[in-house]
Amino acid sequence: MGQGQTQGAAARERIARLRQVMRARGVAAVWVPTSDPHLSTYLPARWKGREWASGFTGSLATLVVTEDDAGLWVDSRYWDQADAQLMGSGIATVRTTNAPGQSPLDWLAANVPQGQTVAVDGAVLGLGQARQAASQLSAAGVVLRTDLDVLAEAWTDRPPLPAAPVFAHALSPVSRTDKLRAVRAEMRVLGATHHFISTLDDVAWLTNLRGADVEHLPLFLAHLLVEPGGARLFIGEGKVPDALRAALEADGITLHPYDEAARALGALQEGTRLLVDPRRITHGLRQAVPRGVTVVEGLNPSTVAKSRKTDAELAHFRDAMEQDGAALCAFFAWFESALGREPITELTVDERLSAERAKRPGFVSLSFSTIAAYNANAAMPHYRATRDSHATVCLPGQTPQGLLLIDSGGQYTSGTTDITRVVPVGEPTPEQRRDFTLVLRGMINLSRARFPRGTRSPNLDALARAPLWAEGLDYGHGTGHGVGFFLNVHEGPHGFSPTMLNDLTTAMEPGMITSNEPGLYRPGRWGIRIENLIAAVPDRKTEFGDFLRFETLSLCPIDTRLVDVALLSRDEVDWLNAYHATVRERLQPHVQGPARDWLLQRTQPL
């Protein structure tokens, strides 16, 4: 039996177990989101239930199972991956777009008979989702149960809670007491006496702590209850060393068992005014709040505060970019010298690049699983090479022809990096160079933007798409996401995407770091994405207000062998030459030998 058949058979058996529990509990359908009690993007193993049940390893999907049907809802980034990984499982790939009426809720409302029950674990369901589900399913005459975790009953070998220790982030330039003081000031403005926080990056940022409970992210599982005279941190036993516990207590933060968070909410006294972020708290935790407590809904103050990097944090980020750029130079120098001389696969690329990053000062881990995608594989934006399925880039004696896309990043104590480069393997075709240059023009267009402070970040997305739109081309993902300070590689509340909520929470402010990553994908042929991280910084003040511009933080040459100079304007050529001059100046002190030679060669002006 092949690997795909084995995976499909395993998923069939697990879906059968789910259905057995459903029948015993009188449930017509179970809804399994990709989520945990903190509404995280990347999940600890204990909450990878959707992956366990379906076998699909992508970072975002929703599984729905009924007695006769099973479907996995995925967007365009994952269509091909889902088709491959669901083969033989009996689970259908449900391909979603931005069109209305395509959500799992829409399907459940239309297909579950009136009077029947849909079960979802309220402990991992976002409050906003729960409200929408209750309204939509009730209108269809369907009962929603959020107090029943069908998955947990079927998943008998579920992993335990992670136990990695927590440590202080020594490079945090603002003390935890000052951060908590600022949060309490915002609470007073909103009329709140208490504030409950579940999102892991908010908790880590506020407490100046980091951990290793989530792969690739320096986070730890915890909830935080901020009170007028202190704060309670709900965290696993033994995760905080004694010296660090003493330091936290000296700053007014006491430690409590992780599983007591809901009980603490339930014990709040009548008259308490509790601030919660409805987008960042689960239905289960919200349900624990007693009726006598007034709930104030608003954005977590820390979510906005941590997105606005201080000057000191930006200085640390620049150091991280230099270390990361040096690692990339060493890798690409090896890669170009090894072509045609030694076997290179997508896995080799991942291994060699990860090894170069690991040599750099301050490196902690990768910031996400590296995407090394050759030719047609790069047309899948979230492709991941595996031992069982990967492409060979080149073998000794070969003269290959193609494009290699590498999307990668690192977690350094000084910052989080995320960068994508595409390089030619052999001689690129005119069509490949045209595609690459159009994507480059979009990236440059956004990089050079100047805009009023407070501009809603989704509105800037179109700047990167304009050169592609002019040619009748587009890409199916957002142009950029926020990035944290040795935190989440995907950080809110801002980002460049037409699907984001266009409200005050996404207003661009100085210090916000965002990825700039337009792309173009030719299914079955190649994919192109060019990505830098950019920071919003003050530009100038005019009679029309304060204006911002972007500082490009990422430091790695953009391969000019793929550039069709005839398609670039003089200003675009000047931008690229100036960028390469900066890359050369900043990285030279960190590289030597072949890496330095490669850097000098690839930063020659056009």
Automatic annotation (TrEMBL):
Please verify whether the record's keywords include Secreted. no
Q: Where in the numbering of this chain does the Creatinase N-terminal domain appear?
A: 14-140
Task: Please state every residue range assigned to the domain named Peptidase M24 C-terminal.
Answer: 547-606
Report the superkingdom from the record.
Answer: Bacteria
Start and end residues of each Peptidase M24 domain = 316-535
- Keywords assigned: Aminopeptidase, Hydrolase, Metal-binding, Protease
MF GO annotations: metal ion binding; metalloaminopeptidase activity
List the Pfam families.
Creatinase_N, Creatinase_N_2, Peptidase_M24, Peptidase_M24_C
What GO cellular component term, any one, is given? cytoplasm
Give the family from UniProt.
Answer: Belongs to the peptidase M24B family.
Protein name, per record: Aminopeptidase P family protein
